[in-house]
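Please decode residue identities from the backbone states below.
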């Protein structure tokens, strides 16, 4: 897992290695300084030797300067390395997610993908920085300080052989207690993101149903949960410093006691005693740092897991080896197609579908919500792959096309269309990047979009805000239709996409397509029977099965469901 993540370090390897190297330099200087201090005290101040004071003093300043420089350089490298690493990791994740099929995306929620790309990457970045800086520094500091104590006075070093294991054990206990809290905190973050995303994404609905209070409450509950977990965890972590203080004073007292005896016996100088205090600080603080790193790594482990999960996710729709990059025509054939959103065969969204549609036909699809209409058409541009059976477009299995060629030839207009912030022209050019204004206008004409575009004072340059809040639902749909037409597709699918337009416009668009794009296969999924009445043939779908497939006229005679839908809607009109 860690190997996989570390792949993203790439060009920042140099900085990642230099950081601990400079850290080593800093630690060496820091270990040297107390020795020099001891010398200064013993050979300079005690003896009153001014020359010694000056030479040792200069050495001290030089060491301190080096230590400072090394520390600064190491910090610089560490931040370049960790930020660069995070940048690469984010890039890799984003890149991977772009390759995901709908099925892959269904598996994670959108907010979970967002958390992984933001919070989780930041966690991984922080622990990476910690590791290259402190995970090297702390053990070095610990070993060198202990070594120095040992060299100066063996008896005193024994103190640490008792204190260190005790402190170490206590720290481990704390970490053990704290760990589950932190893990819970990050799970709750997902929840928080979900609430925020749902609320902010649907803020208009929230407002129109006056559900703000309820939404705030929902947010507060999750927010409170995080607050409680975090304070609990941090309270426990705070006991760290109490243990440290205790261990430090305990050691200092013992050092004083044994040190004083040794000085009297002539085995220790006052300077050395002073340096022992500094080293004991070094030993204990590096222990503390190690425990912090341990916590940090434990915190970021779930994040790492979640990041790797995204990296490991195999896009389940990929270009096959045998590739056609041209779709010859708009013929459609389904052969014994089964499909399920889960891998559970008993919950089929499509059940044994067999279909034959000729290029240029207009096909209506009608059926209750949830009957599988959208699912059926999603298989055409390979947004999903069937579980069993084959889907053929232009006489060739969709799996044998290059994805871009297939999706270029199969244009889909959805009920809920997404326009991106930018001018109308920018948005329409998604359909064809090279389209001229004339071509764009032709498409807009067919989609009945010209009349409202011409009302905007800057026409095609009209700026669509993020979330397309400054165009109406019907306008949005017509723009989406124009965008789909610009692709010059072989098959165009309207998934309930004219429901926001009035019936007149709806009919006019269908007429335009019939007249001006006779060779294109048109599939119209509709709630309104009037939208499919002028189709060549209509598919009636129920619970994932095709129950009838015939001309509207024949269906009136033969199809019970079709007649029922017709009756209920026509009655409403009268
Ligand atoms: N992304 C999805 N994940 C899981 N189940 C889904 C998904 N999309 C649709 N379904 C289920 O598949 C069935 C058919 O849905 P759909 O094709 O969207 O119906 P329709 O378009 O006819 O309203 C429904 O039971 C729906 O709940
Ligand atoms: Mg649908």
């Amino acid at each position: 897992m860690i190997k996989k993540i570390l792949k993203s370090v790439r060009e920042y390897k140099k900085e990642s290695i230099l950081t601990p190297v400079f850290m080593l330099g800093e630690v060496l200087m820091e270990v040297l300084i107390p020795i020099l201090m001891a010398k200064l005290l013993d050979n300079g101040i005690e003896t009153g030797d001014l020359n010694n004071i000056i030479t040792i003093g200069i050495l001290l300043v030089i060491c301190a300067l080096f230590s400072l420089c090394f520390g600064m350089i190491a910090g610089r490298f560490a931040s370049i390395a960790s930020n660069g690493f995070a940048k690469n990791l984010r890039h890799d994740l984003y890149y991977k997610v772009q390759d995901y099929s709908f099925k892959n995306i269904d598996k994670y929620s959108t907010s979970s993908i967002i958390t992984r790309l933001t919070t989780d990457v930041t966690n991984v970045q922080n622990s990476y920085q910690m590791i290259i800086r402190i995970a090297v520094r702390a053990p070095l500091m610990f070993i060198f300080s202990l070594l120095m104590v040992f060299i100066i006075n063996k008896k005193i070093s024994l103190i640490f052989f008792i204190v260190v294991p005790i402190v170490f054990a206590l720290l481990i206990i704390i970490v053990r207690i704290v760990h589950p809290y932190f893990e819970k905190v990050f799970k709750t973050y997902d929840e928080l993101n979900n609430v925020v995303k749902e609320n902010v994404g649907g803020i208009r609905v929230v407002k129109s149903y006056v559900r703000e209070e309820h939404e705030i409450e929902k947010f507060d509950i999750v927010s409170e949960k995080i607050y409680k977990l975090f304070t609990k965890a941090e309270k426990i972590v705070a006991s760290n410093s109490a243990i440290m203080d205790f261990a430090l004073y305990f050691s200092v007292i013992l050092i004083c006691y044994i040190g004083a005896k040794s000085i009297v016996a002539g085995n220790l100088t006052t300077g050395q005693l002073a340096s022992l205090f500094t080293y004991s600080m070094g030993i204990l603080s590096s222990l503390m740092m190690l425990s912090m790193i341990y916590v940090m790594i434990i915190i970021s482990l779930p994040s790492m897991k979640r990041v790797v999960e995204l990296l490991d996710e195999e896009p389940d729709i990929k270009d096959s080896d045998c590739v056609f990059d041209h779709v010859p025509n708009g013929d459609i054939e389904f052969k014994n197609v089964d499909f399920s959103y889960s891998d559970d065969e008993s919950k089929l969204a499509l059940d044994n579908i067999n279909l034959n549609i000729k290029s240029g036909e207009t096909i209506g699809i009608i059926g209750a919500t949830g009957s599988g209409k959208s699912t059926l058409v999603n298989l055409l541009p390979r947004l999903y792959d069937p579980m069993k059976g084959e889907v053929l477009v232009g006489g060739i299995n969709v799996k044998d096309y290059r994805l871009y060629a297939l999706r270029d030839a199969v244009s889909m207009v959805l009920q809920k269309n997404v326009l991106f912030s930018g001018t109308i022209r920018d948005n329409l050019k998604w359909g064809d990047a090279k389209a001229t204004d004339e071509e764009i206008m032709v498409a807009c004409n067919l989609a009945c979009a010209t009349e409202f575009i011409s009302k905007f004072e800057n026409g095609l340059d009209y700026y669509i805000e993020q979330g397309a809040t400054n165009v109406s639902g019907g306008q949005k749909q017509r723009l989406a239709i124009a965008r789909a037409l610009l692709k010059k597709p072989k098959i165009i699918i309207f998934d309930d996409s004219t429901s926001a337009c009035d019936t007149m416009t709806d009919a006019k668009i269908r007429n335009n397509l019939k007249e001006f794009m006779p060779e294109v296969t048109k599939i119209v999924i509709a709630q309104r029977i009037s939208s499919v009445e002028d189709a060549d043939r209509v598919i009636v779908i129920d619970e994932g099965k095709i129950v009838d497939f015939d001309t509207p006229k024949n269906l009136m005679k033969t199809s019970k469901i079709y007649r029922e839908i017709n009756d209920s809607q026509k009655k409403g009109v009268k």
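Observation: The first strand starts at residue 332 and ends at 339.
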